[in-house]
């Protein structure tokens, strides 16, 4: 299978998997917090598919809902009909969302949801040459529009980027204020509420209140990317709820599909949405795609939401996450030369290692000398992730800062799992 993967899917990615030792692992089954590989080895999942598995693997209620849908021969392409499934999901998502975040677009991925979010905001801003502010260290997806708002040479490569864009440092209110005040064409600000790929980085309440005020004062639309940090991951349904503010547009994906379907959603304030697409004339430029809100995906996401609340998974995320952080901080106190920082909220936790290249024993220095600067600086998280795999615990480092191990287990994670 390894050869076939290399020949037909992605030779570059195969190389990367080999580096991590994943090329030898074939996952046979998965349940709750665990994977089982081809040798019957159980692997505790603290990676959760980049935080996309709130309900754990193969939640029985989600499977049952899908099975019922299939057994009853149901099917529906939402774009063609007044879909009962898509409508029910949209109504429930609006109910989970504060303020008048009421209008829902359903797609299949986080990138698609973010594309829709940026489009609705750009139109509602009323600017002809609308400029979009995004943050350093951001990740919003790999389709061309949002790739252009993703601050990574790694992903952007030498593609032609699109749109009028202005980059500011994340969490720096003064920089945002300077940008908005100096350029009336700025109509949209796009920010992850917690930067995931960037290394699990959050900003204080004063920053978010400032973002809200600045946007209100200058008629700018704030888009909050909650694809990774939303859906209960930080101990609230949306991470922005920690700060008592509501953005104009937001986006969810990942766990929204309950680990079984590809579902992304853009949720916009009613008036914002109406400004953009409210008239029959503009209805067709709305982002709707062929498979958005398709029956089986909508039913899956609906049951996922039911489970999230019936099993108090958001509260569990808050409590188990606090336990995880406190246990890791105890270890950090004991080994400050190894662990630099422990941070996060709920079950979105970053464990940052000291730059190992600086503390490496003398005997290993020659090995280090063989690596380039970038690789040297990111060795610790890499080694940390490898070592944890020897204990049958699956974790991964964050994309931009590889000294940070991301701990984003399913929200069904228990105190015992943490211990
Ligand atoms: N936004 C954020 C914050 C993400 O973390 C991701 C995925 N890692 C995306 C957008 C894109 O989601 P997808 O991979 O489903 O397109």
Automatic annotation (TrEMBL):
Which InterPro entries does the UniProt entry name for this protein? Answer: Aminotrans_3, Aminotrans_3_PPA_site, Class-III_PLP-dep_AT, PyrdxlP-dep_Trfase, PyrdxlP-dep_Trfase_major, PyrdxlP-dep_Trfase_small
User: Which SUPFAM superfamilies does the entry link to?
Assistant: PLP-dependent transferases
Q: Which UniProt keywords apply?
A: Aminotransferase, Pyridoxal phosphate, Transferase
Q: Which PROSITE patterns match?
A: AA_TRANSFER_CLASS_3 (PS00600)
Q: Which domain of life is it from?
A: Bacteria
Q: Which Pfam families match?
A: Aminotran_3
- What are the names of the required cofactors? pyridoxal 5'-phosphate
* Molecular function via GO: transaminase activity
Q: What family classification does the UniProt entry report for this protein?
A: Belongs to the class-III pyridoxal-phosphate-dependent aminotransferase family.
UniProt-recorded name of the protein: Aspartate aminotransferase family protein
At the highest ranks, the source species' classification is: Bacteria, Pseudomonadati, Pseudomonadota, Alphaproteobacteria, Hyphomicrobiales
């Amino acid at each position: 299978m390894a050869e076939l993967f290399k020949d037909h899917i992605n030779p570059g990615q195969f190389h990367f998997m080999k580096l991590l030792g994943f090329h030898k692992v074939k996952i046979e089954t998965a349940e709750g917090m665990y994977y089982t590989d081809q040798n019957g080895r159980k692997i505790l999942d603290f990676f959760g598919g980049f935080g996309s598995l709130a309900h754990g693997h193969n939640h029985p209620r989600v499977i049952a809902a899908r099975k019922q849908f299939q057994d009853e021969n149901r099917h529906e392409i939402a774009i063609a009909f007044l879909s009962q499934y898509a409508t029910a999901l949209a109504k429930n998502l609006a109910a989970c969302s504060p303020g008048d975040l009421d209008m829902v677009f359903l797609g299949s991925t986080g990138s698609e949801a973010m594309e829709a979010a940026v489009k609705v905001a750009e139109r509602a801003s009323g600017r002809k040459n609308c400029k979009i502010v995004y943050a350093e260290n951001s990740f919003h997806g790999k389709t061309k529009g949002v790739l252009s708002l993703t601050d990574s040479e790694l992903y952007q490569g030498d593609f032609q980027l699109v749109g009028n864009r202005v980059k500011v440092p994340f969490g720096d209110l003064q920089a945002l204020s300077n940008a908005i005040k100096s350029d009336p064409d700025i109509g949209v600000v796009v920010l992850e509420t917690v930067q995931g790929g960037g290394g699990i980085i959050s900003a204080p309440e004063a920053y978010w209140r400032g973002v809200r005020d600045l946007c209100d004062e200058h008629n700018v639309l704030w888009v909050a990317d909650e694809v990774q940090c939303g859906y209960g991951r930080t101990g609230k349904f949306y991470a922005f709820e920690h700060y008592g503010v509501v953005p104009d547009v937001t986006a969810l994906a990942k766990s929204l599909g309950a680990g079984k379907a590809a579902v992304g959603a853009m949720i916009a304030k009613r008036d914002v949405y109406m400004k953009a697409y409210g008239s029959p004339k503009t209805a067709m430029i709305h982002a709707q795609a062929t498979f958005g809100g398709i029956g089986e995906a909508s039913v899956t996401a609906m049951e996922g939401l039911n489970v999230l609340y019936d099993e108090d998974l958001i509260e569990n995320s808050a409590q188990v996450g606090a336990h995880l952080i406190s246990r890791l901080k105890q270890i950090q106190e004991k080994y400050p030369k190894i662990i630099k920082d422990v941070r996060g909220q709920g079950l979105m936790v970053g464990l940052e290692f000291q730059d190992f290249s600086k503390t490496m024993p003398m005997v290993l220095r020659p090995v280090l000398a063989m690596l380039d600067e970038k690789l040297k600086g990111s060795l610790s998280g890499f080694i940390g992730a490898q070592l944890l795999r020897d204990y049958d615990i699956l974790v991964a480092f964050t994309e931009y800062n590889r000294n940070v191990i991301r701990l984003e287990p399913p929200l069904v994670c228990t105190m015992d799992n943490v211990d």
